[in-house]
Write a structure and sequence with these properties.
CATH architecture of the largest domain in chain A: Up-down Bundle
CATH class of the largest domain in chain A: Mainly Alpha
Strand order of the largest sheet of chain A: 2-1-3-4
Strand content of chain A: 5-15%
Largest interface: A-B, 29 and 29 residues
Oligomer: homodimer
Number of domains of chain A: 2
CATH topology of the largest domain in chain A: Glutathione S-transferase Yfyf (Class Pi), Chain A, domain 2
Helix content of chain A: 40-55%
Number of helices of chain A: 7
Number of strands of chain A: 4
C-alpha cells in the first residue's frame, strides 16, 4: 500500500494522525497541490475528483475519502480503537465525527477556500459565503466548548477520530485567523491535550 | 426507540429508506421544520444542533446524524447488508457514500438553501454561492453518469447506502430545477431502478 499525501493539506493530515495513533507505517507519496499535481491525468486516474488523500491498495485499486481510509485501517488493526468499541459506541463516535466535520472542520475550510488568497483564481470564491462560514465557525467553537465541559474528549472519555477531525479543523483555522477564544477554557484544555500527543506531529 | 422525523426533509428520508430496505419498523414523531418546531427548547434538548433525524434510544440518549443512525441499525440487523460485507467492501461503500454526500447531495442541498424562497429570512442566503453549487451539481451528475456506465449501483453490483444518499439528493434537486439530463442514460437507468424499489416511498 501507499498513501498519496500532501503535507500542507488538512484531510491527508487526518489520516496521518490516525495512522500515527495506531502505530501503522504506510509509505507516502507527496502530491503538490500548489503545483496542481492533483489535476494531472496520472493523478486523476487514481481519483477523478482530484482530492487527497488516496490510498493505493496492493491490488492497484484506489480508496479515497479520509474517513473511509481510516475505517479500513481500523478494521485491519482494531487497537487502539479510534472509531468505537461496540455497535452503539461506534454509532456515537460516528455522530461526533460527523458533527466535527460538518460544524467545525467544514465551516473553517469553507472560510479558507472562499476568502484566502491561495484559492484566488483556483476556484470560484464567494467572499460573502466565506464570512457566513467564519461566523458559523465561531458559534460552533463556543458550542464545542460547552460540550467539552462534560467530558475529556469530543466523543467521550476515550480519544477518537472525532478528536482528530476537530483538532485538524481548528488548527486549519489559523490562516483565516479563526482561533480559540481565551474564554473557552474547556476547548483550550482539550486543544492543548491533543496538541501534546506525539501523533499531532504526524 | 423512536425516530424524530419530518416527511419533507431529505436527511430523515435517507434513514426511512434505509429502514424500509432492512424491513425495520421504528415509530416516528414528526417535527415540523416549517413551523420551526426544531428550534424549540424541547427539541434542542435532544439535538442542540437542531437537525433531523434524531433517534431516541430506550435509555433516553439521542443519536443524531443520518449515517450514524444507519450504521447502528446495520449493526443491529446486518441483513440485507447496505454498508458493505467485509473490511474492504465497507471502506469502498463508505467512500462512495461520502462522494455522494459531498459531490451530489451537498451541492444540491446548498443550491436549495441559498436560492429557494423557503429559506429566505430563515438562514443567511448567499445566492451567488447557490449558483456555484448549481453548476457543481450539474457537473457531478455528468460524472456520476460515467461512473454508472460501469456498474449497476453506485458502489458496485449491490444496492447500498450510497444509492440512498445519491437518490435522495438527486430527488431533492426538483425544487431547484436540477434534473437529470436526458443525455445521461446510465444515470437515468439507475434513477428509475431505485425509484421502482418499494423503499423509495418510505
Amino acid at each position: 500500500m501507499k498513501l498519496y499525501d500532501f503535507r500542507l493539506a488538512p484531510n491527508p493530515r487526518r489520516v496521518r494522525i490516525f495512522l500515527a495513533e495506531k502505530g501503522i507505517d504506510v509509505p507516502t507519496v507527496q502530491v503538490d497541490i500548489v503545483k496542481a499535481e492533483h489535476k494531472q491525468p496520472d493523478f486523476l486516474a487514481k481519483n477523478p475528483l482530484a482530492g487527497l488523500p488516496v490510498l493505493e491498495l496492493d491490488d492497484g485499486r484506489h480508496l479515497t475519502e479520509s474517513v473511509a481510509i481510516c475505517r479500513y485501517f481500523e478494521a485491519l488493526q482494531p487497537e487502539p480503537p479510534l472509531m468505537g468499541v461496540d455497535a452503539l459506541d461506534r454509532a456515537f463516535v460516528e455522530m461526533w465525527n460527523r458533527r466535527m466535520e460538518f460544524e467545525v472542520f467544514g465551516p473553517i475550510a469553507q472560510t479558507f477556500r472562499n476568502t484566502h488568497a491561495f484559492f484566488a483564481g483556483r476556484i470560484p470564491q464567494v467572499a460573502e459565503w466565506g464570512e457566513v462560514n467564519r461566523r458559523a465557525a465561531h458559534k460552533r467553537l463556543a458550542w464545542l466548548d460547552t460540550e467539552l465541559a462534560e467530558r475529556r474528549f469530543v466523543a467521550g472519555d476515550r480519544f477518537s477520530i472525532a478528536d482528530i477531525t476537530a483538532w485538524v479543523g481548528i488548527d486549519f483555522g489559523k490562516p483565516s485567523d479563526i482561533r480559540i477564544d481565551a474564554a473557552h477554557k474547556n476547548l483550550q484544555r482539550w486543544y492543548e491535550a491533543v496538541s501534546a500527543r506525539p501523533s499531532a506531529r504526524a
